[in-house]
Specification:
It contains 16 helices and eight strands. The protein has 317 residues and is an alpha/beta fold. Among the domains are: 137 residues, Conserved hypothetical protein from pyrococcus furiosus pfu- 392566-001, ParB domain; 55 residues, no CATH class. It is elongated and about 70 Å long.
Length: 317
């Protein structure tokens, strides 16, 4: 009977830390008795998916699909100190490779273990293909909230472009809405310098999404710098972005001036406008009152229109 891939078993099973631990010496004894290589003995012992093996730390290499590009050195040092005192409590997840093992999940623990001077680390060996490897690496980081917004966006984009996942498949696998996934990937349309602001936490992903639709990259950078310099809220950024877009579209501005003024909106309708603007990432206008009226959404390209349609389809599923 074919072995299960493990992806359908949930993260609690994938990252189990209560499995029986087989020490390195026992593995070596098994290899000697069977006169086979240590790696073959490891593999034989790993027939039980939940068996923990101690693997030479130098036989493990980082995950090629690791979405994280930054590891906080101070936090690694803290984890290393804990590992020296208590050992590695949660096993690493690895898969076999041509040169030993490749990490699937647990690179932070692996790096901290090297800092702590460990020679071997506890591992669970999984038989994952490249697509499974990619999604488990992203799931682990997202559920632990270890990724910054740009790392997350790059990981999601890689799943669609490199591994052929549809957004619906990603949504089901990660437990996130398609709108969330679409908005995350959209951050990669920002100039690299502004992406760095988001990565470093100088501005939020919500700030980044607010200025994406400004059609001038220089003005995007200008607003991004103002967000950081003046510690602007997302609401203030939305108002500033709309002002800049009006300046860049004089014909639209003339139409707005010629149009009759809207009747005063109630606080409730104004709040709904703001909520929809944040959710959909575009200008929203509600005219009318609590009993009847209309909702208008603005878009500035075919791509933007398709994104809004996808977001509304997701909302009404």
């Amino acid at each position: 009977m074919a072995k299960k891939s493990g992806l359908g078993r949930g993260l609690d099973a994938l990252f189990a830390d209560v499995a029986p631990i087989e020490e390195t010496a026992e593995i070596a004894e098994t290899a000697k008795a069977k006169k086979v290589s240590k790696k073959a003995a490891d593999t034989a012992a790993a027939d039980d998916d939940d068996r923990v093996l101690y693997v030479d730390i130098n036989d493990i290499r980082p995950n090629s699909a690791q979405p994280r590009s930054h590891f906080d050195e101070e936090k690694l040092a803290e984890l290393s100190k804990s590992i020296r005192a208590n050992g590695v409590i949660q096993p690493l997840i690895v898969r076999e490779s041509s040169t030993g093992y490749e990490l699937v999940a647990g690179e932070r623990r692996w790096r901290a273990s090297r800092l702590a001077g460990l020679k071997t680390v506890p591992c669970i060996v999984r038989n994952f293909d490249d697509r499974q490897n990619a999604i488990v690496a992203i799931i682990e980081n997202m559920q632990r909230e270890d990724l910054n917004p740009i790392e997350e966006a790059l990981g999601l984009k890689s799943m669609t472009e490199k591994y052929g996942f549809t957004q619906e498949q990603i949504s089901e696998s990660l437990g996130r809405s398609r709108t969330y996934i679409t908005n995350s990937i959209r951050l990669l349309k920002l100039p690299k310098e502004i992406q760095e602001y988001v990565s470093s936490g100088q501005m939020s992903a919500a700030h980044g999404r607010t200025i994406i639709n400004i059609p001038d990259k220089a003005r995007q950078k200008e607003i991004a710098d103002k967000i950081i310099r003046n510690d602007l809220s997302v609401r203030a950024t939305e108002r500033l972005a709309e002002k800049v877009k009006d300046e860049l579209r004089p014909e639209r501005k003339r139409r707005k001036k010629a149009a009759p003024a809207d009747p005063a909106k109630s606080a409730e309708i104004a709040a709904v406008e703001r909520e929809l603007m944040t959710l959909l990432g575009t200008k929203v206008h509600i005219s009318g009152d609590e009993s009847n009226g209309k909702i208008e959404l603005e878009y500035y390209s075919l791509e933007e229109l398709n994104r809004l349609i996808d977001a509304m389809r997701e909302a009404f599923r």
